[in-house]
Amino acid sequence: MNALLKRITVNPRQMSGRPCIRGIRVTVANVLRLLAAGHSRTRILKAYPYLEAADIDACLEYAALLASDRDFELEAVTA
Predict the structure, then answer these.
(1) In terms of C-beta density within 10 A (0-12 exposed, 13-18 middle, 19 or more buried), how is residue 54 classed?
(2) Is residue 77 domain-resident?
(3) How far apart are CA 24 and CA 55, in angstroms?
(4) Does residue 79 carry a pLDDT above 70?
(5) Backbone angles phi and psi of 12, in degrees to 5
(6) What is the value of pTM for the model shown?
(7) Strands, E, within the chain: which ranges?
(8) For the segment 54-72, what is each residue's pLDDT rounded down to a tens digit?
(9) Phi then psi for 78, rounded to 5 degrees?
(10) Within a domain: residue 74?
(11) What residues make up the domain containing 13?
(12) CA 35, CA 20: separation in Å to the nearest integer?
């Protein structure tokens, strides 16, 4: 698995099982929506100081894999 994708977690008990960043309550979809709306990485990182630049890269990598229609699985968190 790509090292960036290890930053994306899926936990059925958190955020209704939607992909999140490093187990925190920030969804991949939310970060992608902010980028799509034209927000800069700097602005996103200031708004979410617990995020790291690599988290944004991970969201983009995740979106690219979904768009390429490749089969892949993320490990579910059981904690």
Answers:
(1) middle
(2) no
(3) 11
(4) no
(5) -55, -25
(6) 0.83
(7) 8-9, 20-21, 24-27
(8) 999 999 999 998 888 766 6
(9) -110, 10
(10) no
(11) 3-68
(12) 16
On whether residue 55 sits in a domain, the answer given is yes
CATH number assigned to the domain comprising residue 25:
1.10.10.10
Count up the domains in the chain and report the number. Answer: 1
**CB-side neighbour CA atoms (13 Å) of 22:** 11
Q: Tell me the two tokens of residue 73.
A: 């699985």
- Interatomic CA distance for residues 44 and 52, integer angstroms: 10
Note whether residue 76 is domain-resident: no
Please identify which residue in the block is written with the tokens 């990598």: 61
pLDDT bin (cut points 50, 70, 90) of residue 75 is low
40: amino acid identity, one letter: S
